[in-house]
Amino acid sequence: MGEKPLIKGILILIGLAVPSLNAIAEFARGAVFIDSNENGLLDSGEIGLSNVRVSNGAEIVLSGADGRYEIEIDDEAILFITKPANYATPVNGHMLPQFYYIHQPKGSPPGLRYQGISPTGPLPEEINFPLLPRPEEKQFEALLFADTQPQTNRELDYIRDDIIPELVGTSSVFGMTLGDILFDDLSMFPRYNGIISKIGIPWYNVPGNHEMNFQAKSDKYSLETFKRFFGPPYYAFEYADALFVVLDNIDYKGNGEADPGDIRGNGGYEASLSAKQLKWLSKELSYVPNDTLVFVATHAPLGNESGSYTTKNRKKLFRLLSGRPNLYSVAGHTHTTDHVYFGEDDGFAGPGQFHHHVLATVSGSWWSGPFDERGIAISDQRDGTPNGYHVLEVDSTDVSVRFKAAGKPADFQMRIMYDVMHHQQRKDAIRDSLHGTTLDGFMSEDEVAAASILVNLFDGGPKSKVSYRVNDGNYVPMERVLRTDPYIVEQFQRYESVKKSWVQATDSTHIFSADLDDSISRGTHTVTVRAIDEFGRVHHGHSILEITGGMRGTEAAVKY
Predict the structure, then answer these.
(1) Residue 20: Cβ-neighbour burial (10 angstroms; 0-12, 13-18, 19+)
(2) How far apart are the C-alpha atoms of 144 and 325, rounded to whole Å?
(3) In which residue ranges of the chain is pLDDT below 50?
(4) Using CB atoms within 10 A of its CB, is residue 507 exposed (0-12), middle (13-18) or buried (19+)?
(5) Cis previous bond, 5, omega within 30
(6) Three-state SS for 410?
């Protein structure tokens, strides 16, 4: 290949003064081409495609006028392209995009519990990447899943029955799962992929901390099974006017540092971005116009409002993204919903703020009960958000995201509650309260003076505005407060036997509170809540409030 015979002759002459033959650089060569007959092969007469980015995971080259490229490649590497706008990559039978080639001559190292990469052998003479012309509208939607995370095959049933049916026939053009695709048992990948494929759109994946082979001695080989199914752990693709960037921010510490009490041999991890992928991203962005919408997806949050999660090296990422006016970033991992706006104090130089969105999860509280009439765990998140997913809405460089609770109407965006007990749902008091008391809108006139109205705006954040009114009165503003959702506190306490042991209610960043108007008279009233979310969308919710004479105990006998 190329000049190798000449190089070999020089090595013979100067002997030990040069590196061994094993150190000689190899070059991957091939073409990016329009696959006219869609057979995946470069056939005579098929046209090469120029200016497509081809990467070895660190460096990037552009395909030439004839579609051909050449790039140096390490002993082990994944070669991949950045799908250009208005083209599609082929997908396999599970709707997984095929935009990469794995070069791993000896395969994965021995000793991994779950199958990794089979030996690929010597580098092929050509590695060609087929593309299919597909016009892409500047206005489109995509599906965003976070932490589907089935721990058992029964929980895979929950995904199949709770999420997928309502998405069959979706108008979204692709989907993405933001890590924790599974819950450590990587043997479920084939079944999981088959279930997700029934949505019928190309599906991209982000690695999480539960896709790792815990027997790996370091981060280098921790994602061998992920790679087997999905390819590179970080990559990018274009769609219309946007660039989508997937980053791996889970750094596995290896089983050599495992906690002896951890039967999985899990050596732990930290949220961190490697120097290698940041180098790749720097080169990737150098080919991208400054006003392009850049969408960044990670598993672990870059940060959250409370400051309890931070990705190491995030300031280096912020420096790469600074100066770009059109940015958006998403993550999963926490099983809470959060909006964070990074600015100069965080290392992002602007313009404006960098909006980072921690998404609600498909698995909610890790598929904890109670169970609905289908036998599926209701699994509200620990911040009170129902389990569900998000729909990304893009119009050229404008972006917004809307939350969709699984199996609920699209306008189910809030929970309205009344706090008349003022003990933050302590366990000993739950015993003596009726199930669902916080939701029922029934209280005595003696309780009104001390009562608060609470609203959990499921995808709310620091820029959201919430207010309420009684009947046709004026709207009263509500204050965002950091506290637990009393509904989820009660649910976890009443159904502790079907809750995962580690699941506990946590403070929510999207609870809004106000004192209930003391002047509300006896009778039946309509309470209307108006919420403006982070994207300026207006949502309404309603509750019927009954005010009666006497204390609740005497009225409860009549009501129940």
Answers:
(1) exposed
(2) 23
(3) 1-22, 257-261, 263, 423-424, 553-560
(4) middle
(5) no
(6) coil
Handedness of CA 209, 214, 218, 224 (dihedral sign): negative
Q: Which two tokens stand for residue 171?
A: 């108008």
Q: Is 151 exposed, middle or buried (0-12, 13-18, 19+ CB in 10 A)?
A: middle
Beta-bridged to residue 68, according to DSSP, are 31
Interatomic CA distance for residues 321 and 294, integer angstroms: 9
Name residue, tokens 């087997």.
228
DSSP string, 379-416: ---TTSPPSEEEEEEEETTEEEEEEEETTS-TT--EEE
Q: How many CA atoms lie within 13 Å of 328's alpha carbon, on the beta-carbon side?
A: 19
What is the spatial distance between Cα 150 and Cα 412, in angstroms, rounded to a whole number?
Answer: 25
DSSP per-residue string spanning 254-321: -GGG--TT-TT----EEEB--HHHHHHHHHHHHTS-TTSEEEEE-SS-SB-TTS--B-BTHHHHHHHH
- Under DSSP, the state recorded for 346 is G
CA distances to 161, 225, 374, 501, 546 from 370, in Å: 16, 33, 11, 14, 28
**Helices and strands of the chain, counted as H and E runs:** 10, 30
CB 356 within 8 A of CB 340: yes
pLDDT on residue 433? 64
Angle value at C-alpha 539, between 538 and 544, nearest 5 degrees:
140
Residue type, 337: T
The pTM of the full predicted model, rounded to 2 decimals, is 0.92
The neighbour count for residue 450, using CB atoms within 10 Å, is: 14
What is the rounded CA–CA span in Å between residue 550 and residue 78? 72
Amino acid sitting at position 351: P
Residues in the chain, total: 560
Given CA atoms 17, 21, 25, 27 in this order, what sign does their dihedral have? positive
Write phi, then psi, for 371 (nearest 5 degrees).
-100, 145
Give 65-120 pLDDT, tens digit per residue. 999 999 999 999 999 999 999 999 999 999 999 999 999 999 999 999 999 999 99
Residue 370's Cβ-count burial label (10 Å; 0-12, 13-18, 19+) is: middle
Amino acid at the residue 504: Q
CA–CA distance, 103 with 78 (Å, rounded to integer)? 6
Tokens encoding 211: 């896709």
